[in-house]
Amino acid sequence: MTTPSLPNISTLHSLSESNLTTVLDLLFEPSPPLRNLSLPVLKSTAFPSYPTLIAAINAQLTALASSTNPEDIATLSDILCAHPRLGEKKVDSEQSRAEQAQLNTGDQEEANKLKRLNTLYEETFPGLRYVVFVNGRPRPAIMSNMNSRIARNDIKAERQEAIQAMCDIAADRARKLEQ
């Protein structure tokens, strides 16, 4: 299987919508609402670097999180929920599968605890999915973070933290996928 790569950042604004969609899907998770939000910016802006592009998307997502319009919050939730649950057995995204690989090893008791935490998180924050930049951290460290975020019980802070995690993941992917 061929390892995907990102095109040179200087060529982005001249790429087809299909190719720009591929770029978004590689950096983030495949998400039609994210595409609808960000493709116009990618088509019309020449970015000097992938971190700058990711910062622009971060700003778009933060604007949604700050909105009082329920449709904006629903769009943001759809985008954040494009990320798979941690510890899921079936993960469509090649990048997410690789990033979560160490979370899917270990004993069944820990796996069950992670599954329960996912459920508790989603009950605490309806419409959200726990998003974190795993970055090689072991399952107990991730579960500790998850518990802290659940205990904080602040949906606005949670949206911001999920946006930042999504963008941290995208930045890491960009470093790995740039040609």
TrEMBL record:
<dbReference type="InterPro" id="IPR036778">
    <property type="entry name" value="OHCU_decarboxylase_sf"/>
</dbReference>
<dbReference type="Pfam" id="PF09349">
    <property type="entry name" value="OHCU_decarbox"/>
</dbReference>
<dbReference type="InterPro" id="IPR018020">
    <property type="entry name" value="OHCU_decarboxylase"/>
</dbReference>
<keyword id="KW-0659">Purine metabolism</keyword>
<protein>
    <recommendedName>
        <fullName>Oxo-4-hydroxy-4-carboxy-5-ureidoimidazoline decarboxylase domain-containing protein</fullName>
    </recommendedName>
</protein>
<feature type="domain" description="Oxo-4-hydroxy-4-carboxy-5-ureidoimidazoline decarboxylase">
    <location>
        <begin position="14"/>
        <end position="175"/>
    </location>
</feature>
<dbReference type="GO" id="GO:0006144">
    <property type="term" value="P:purine nucleobase metabolic process"/>
</dbReference>
